């Protein structure tokens, strides 16, 4: 046996393998099993969307695990636990009912005001809660970004999935209120599902964009609660679209959230079909915003670990 036959070869006498020999032997044994992920330089390309979605699908189990983790942490060591998901919309409903039904008057189209406002609080609280948590998600767990690779969008998207559970719990309270006030659901209530899906898409777009911006500019996290508070009063949550002057209504409905919240209330409370042109416009804005936000997020992904 010659000296070139491996780390354990002998040259007249048995030679003890060195650490370098062990390393070389291990590398040859592993072959192609060990993979290295190289995060390329920032690149704003439409192909990044398809590549990112394919990679995200491969890490779907991690998205599921992190979503469960968000829920467990949120209500851990809480006396009321999951009841908080229903208490928040109920408390806001009581406050707004007192103000807008007793102190001042709001046109509700004949619907009881608690039902009127709760039907809009459902999608709005999902949107605002998911965006608020998603924006802070990346900077809350910097060790995850610097020590291992996974699609970074999983972190903000996991908050979206957690907010979905809160939405479902609050929806049960809404059904109880519908029975209490004897408001019957019609077949048009089925439109609430596609309306909510469009809202979830827009929520993901806003969350992805501002979470990426927040990594570089921490002012976003400080300004977001105030911006969402203003946004709520700029959407038909505590009042109806009919309260907006006609000359400003087209400009007002350029906000996708306003159109989606109004249509969500329309199909559930009033049993009418959605405003299809308005819904189509909100869907178009959502699709464009989601693609652009995801492109920006993926283009920023390469520098997140360095900046954070």
Structural class of the secondary elements? Answer: mainly alpha
Overall geometric form: globular
Largest sheet properties: none
Distance between the termini: 55 Å
Order of helices and strands: HHHHHHHHHHHH
Low-confidence parts, pLDDT < 50 over ≥5 residues?
1-14, 16-23, 29-34
How large is the share of residues in beta strands?
A: under 5%
Compute the number of structural domains: 1
**β-strand number:** 0
Helix proportion: 55-70%
The radius of gyration is 26 Å
Number of helices: 12
Chain-averaged pLDDT: 80
Protein model, in words:
The chain has 12 helices and no strands. It is mostly helical and 308 residues long. The chain has one domain (59-307). The longest helix has 32 residues, at 276-307.
How would you briefly describe this protein structure?
With 308 residues, the protein is mainly α.
Name the features.
69% helix; 308 residues; mainly alpha
Strand-helix topology:
Blueprint: H1 19-30, H2 47-58, H3 60-74, H4 84-103, H5 113-140, H6 142-147, H7 154-180, H8 192-216, H9 219-233, H10 246-252, H11 256-268, H12 276-307
Helix pairs in contact: 3-7, 4-5, 4-7, 5-7, 5-8, 5-9, 5-11, 8-11, 8-12, 11-12
